Amino acid sequence: VQLQASGGGLVRAGGSLRLSCATTARTFSINRMGWFRQAPGKEREFVASIGWIGGSTHYTDSVKGRFTIARDNARNTVYLQMNSLKPEDTAVYYCAAESFGSGSFDSWGQGTLVTVSS
Length: 118
What we know:
seven-stranded mixed sheet; four-stranded antiparallel sheet; about 0% helix
């Protein structure tokens, strides 16, 4: 599964960004898509995920109410709308895919850097 993430950039605190992740995979093989992030000096952490078929969503507590994950099955693309950004959201954001039966996110895209200035 190949994943291509885009949409990162520099934004002021309180601003918004939308990340996109396009996949060229046969999407019937995908169970869930997700976004993770890794801040400087920290471990990578889960941000949000969405079921590719049913659309169920999950978020880490720190982004609930500010971030929204969505998918466009026709475009094989998943989005992460990030509003009310905070400096602590600064990180490299990665999209990932979980294949059916794998039980974990087993395909990763390259990261896209999000920098939130105070």
